[in-house]
Amino acid sequence: MRNHTDDAHTINISVPRARGEVFAKLAKIPEVQLLYVSALACTRHRGSELVEMQRQGRLSYLLFDEIDMITGDYINKTRAAAAQIAAARNPTGIILLTGCQSALLSTDYGLLTQEIEGELGIPVRVHDGCRLCGFDEEAPSAGTGTLNQLLYDFIRPGGKSGAPSVNILGTAELDTHSELFSVLEAAGVKRINCLAACKSREDYQEMGRAHLNIVVSAQDMPIGPYLQERLGIPWVGLGGIYDADELARAYEKLGAALGAAIDVAPFKNKLDEKLQAVKSAVGGRAIAVDGDAEMARWLLNAGFSVTGLSLPSRQGLTQAQRGWFEENATNLKIERSGRGGGNGGGRGGGYGGEKGRDGGGKGRGGGYGDVEGAYGGRGGAASSRRTDAGFGYKGAAAGGRRAGSYGGSDMGRGRGQRERGARDAARIKAGYAGSMEILSSLERIAGGGMQ
Amino acid sequence: MNNLYKYLAPFLADTFGFQEIIDVTDGMGILDDCSGYRGRASRTDAAEPFMGSRMTSTDIRMEDVIGGTKDKILEAFRARRSAFDPAFVMVSSSPVSSMIGTDMEDAANAISRESGLPAASVELGGHKYYDHGISETLLALAKLLVKPAAAKISGGINLIGGNAIDWTTENVCGVHNWARACGFRVVSQWGGRETAENLRQAARAEVNLVTAMSGLAAARWLEREFGTPYIAAAPFGRRWSEMAAVALKNKKQPQLPPDQAQGNVLIIGEQLMSNAIRATLKLDYGIHGVDIGTFFTFDKALASPGDRRVRGEDGLKAFMQNGGYRLIIADPDLRVLGPEDCRWIDLPHGAVCYEFTGDGVPRLADEALNRWLDRVLPREDW
To answer: How far apart (Å, rounded) are the C-alpha atoms in residues A26 and B351?
Structure first.
């Protein structure tokens, strides 16, 4: 989270939405091959991590030229390249990534991937985010879901594991101090799976045997119902919930799904106490929330003076949210920021700063991971209208260097396995720990600790 | 499949060649594209696109596909003009704008009308290699800037094509120094750091020295327009550099006697650079049977019978593994496809090596190549 004061009175508080380099993110799926289909010029935009992926045998490039585009032969070449890769590397699946020219060609990649899948007998998907269309992680690709859904799209349905197990899903990776882990342990969960900890196709497929999916980031909530339909795994959402009572209800639901009574009273009480203390410290100072309507609602409901809410242009309010704000926050000014999540993910990180018009670009994004503690924008420059986008891409990257991801391992031996360098890991603390973190940030700012 | 790269990072594209040339001039480049490219200095990390560059981009978005990008080109020019204070403006298309069909020439003309600056365009599609981009940019620059000369400068030459992607900046400077040490007056250099003012004077040279294949198109145009003959040779290596100097004075292409030896050594790289290394191996070290392969511009008139254009990973692998070579001199990234039982000398190439820093590239100009070969050549009976 990045907070700062943009004048003497207003506290700006914003939530990073974990975004990451698409290739690195998809390469986390064990033993899946990435095939980038593009013009030559599009292949050297990225950093040297792509070289590493190629050296590891995870990434190939298929280049097409003008003649391929005119004749449509790039379709045949894509099919042939996928077959060659499948024969040589025996992957669990193939993901096609496409460049800007593919977007202009209007290729039906949904159909193409189906055909290739039929020919090869392995799942084939596409991610068609590009610099022209933007890297909108929340927009579905052709014939596929969102980028984050794609991460779990290769899991096959399996029989339930013997010992209770859960999957933690979503872009946000939980800090190991989250109460979720002790709660799960107390509920008798023996194994927690998460993508970052999957080292082999067997680890990955183990996720198909989980008893429950827990989605910990607000923007990834669609993954829950998606996997419930595909794999038959029920789900509980913990992302985007801040209110102590609502969290208690979410944990109650979690307990019901696991068949265990869960006592979150100690966490709830602690959060209630903290809330009172921070309210005293912040007083009537105005707060502007960037990027998260639920956080704004929670703070308003708790009695804080939230005067501004800035949302990415493509992120709407639900009917319930709109109704609540109309009824309870007549002074709240809601703004749309940036040009939408569409181009945000890519642009903000890579280019926003340079142009000076997308704001929230490189420099500010980088600040995220460097701050002491968990969150809080060092500097948190004023033009955070592009926070969602600009911050996300770079911020997530920088944040990932510090973030630890909770390793999916048997709880009895090695809980807390840390994955350093997970580039898309934004240390968003879901649950009570997340709310506590926000309050701590507000407290620090109010006390002059972070300007 | 020629265009499937499973082991090698695809090489630098033409748009990067455009950027490379603009960056060493006092002009300004506008890439009509949806993204900016990292420059040579910052290509290996996550630095800002165009950091330290004289380039900017139009930042094309989907809505521009309908509305066109001409206005964005003008906007990009206005936004950065004061920062660059350019002597000229060069506009280039890219994969996206070439598909949209933006009239780049019209956009360049509009810039010129508005600013009074000389402006021209280059049509690049992002599908060809860097050398094509360099070649097209140098040619466009020549057409834009060079004016007829009242008189030639005695001993005046232009150095055309040598660039930091092929050689590093040190070697570009090294060739410039070599030319001056030989008594030539370098009127302008095309590909190395240069001002528009000097480029304008290019017609005053008596002869042009094409030092990399990407300079050939500009040299041929200068010959057509101003009657300036050219020699194609990179002045690397003791005796080959001497031959190049003599050739420049005589205005006649230097030639090596035909070589009947079987393939001993394979050099993979830019053709003129590789030719110079072959000549030096032959003339100064007595090593015969040297073949050359290149992914880039290949001119049969400047090649030996065993030389060839290489296409794709499969072509490279077959060439390297089936030739029975005892030694390969090439970029280290290519080693992954090379034969295991063959000696290898690393010669990093900026268009091939993804993480190119230039550090591993030796000094090549004049006798510097010999000093490097003295150090790296295996001591065996060739």
So the answer is: 27
Query: Taking Cα atoms as reference points, which of A288, A239, A296, A289 lies closest to residue A426?
Result: A239
- Cα–Cα distance measured from residue B282 to residue B285, given in angstroms and rounded to the nearest whole number: 6
DSSP structure class, residue B293: E
Chain A residues touching B60 at Cβ < 8 A: 132
pLDDT tens digits, one per residue of B309-323? 999 999 999 999 998
C-alpha–C-alpha distance, residues B3 and A63, integer Å = 5
Asked if residues B203 and B175 have their Cβ atoms less than 8 Å apart, the reply is no
DSSP secondary structure string for all residues of B227-245: ---EEE---BSHHHHHHHH
**Smallest CA–CA separation between B26 and chain A, in Å?**
21
Contact A54 B7 (CB under 8 A): yes
ipTM of the complex model:
0.93
Q: What is the CATH number of domain B265-376?
A: 3.40.50.1980
Superfamily classification of domain B156-250: Nitrogenase molybdenum iron protein domain (3.40.50.1980)
Domains of chain A: 2-19+283-401+429-446 (no CATH), 22-134 (3.40.50.1980)
What is the C-alpha to C-alpha distance for residues A43 and A127, in angstroms, rounded to an integer? 15
Tens digits of residue pLDDT in A153-188: 999 998 888 888 999 998 665 666 788 988 999 999
Is the Cβ of B59 closer than 8 Å to some Cβ of chain A?
Answer: yes
Residues of A in contact with B38 (CB under 8 A): 44-45
Res. A120: pLDDT tops 50: yes
pLDDT reported for residue A400: 28
Question: Regarding beta strands B89-92 and B28-31, do their DSSP bridges make them parallel or antiparallel, or are they unpaired?
Answer: parallel
User: In chain B, which residues have their Cβ closer than 8 Å to the Cβ of A351?
Assistant: 35-36, 48-49, 59
- In whole angstroms, give the CA distance from residue A52 to residue B16: 22
Q: What is the mean pLDDT of residues A434-446?
A: 88
DSSP one-letter code for A207: G
Whole-number Å distance between alpha carbons of B146 and B124: 22
Tens digit of each residue's pLDDT (9 = 90 or more) over A384-394: 222 222 222 22
Of the listed ranges A82-96, A429-443, B66-80, B340-354, the least confidently predicted one is A429-443
Name which of B56, B25, B312 is nearest A81 in CA terms.
B312
Alpha-carbon span B210 to B218, nearest angstrom: 9
CATH number for the domain running over B14-128: 3.40.50.1980
Residue-range domain boundaries for chain B? 14-128, 156-250, 265-376
Three-class secondary structure of residue B162 per DSSP: coil
Token duo for residue A231 = 């794999």
Helix, coil or strand: residue A332: coil
Q: What angle do CA A6, A12, A18 make, to 5 degrees?
A: 125
Residue A34 bridge partners (DSSP): A59, A95
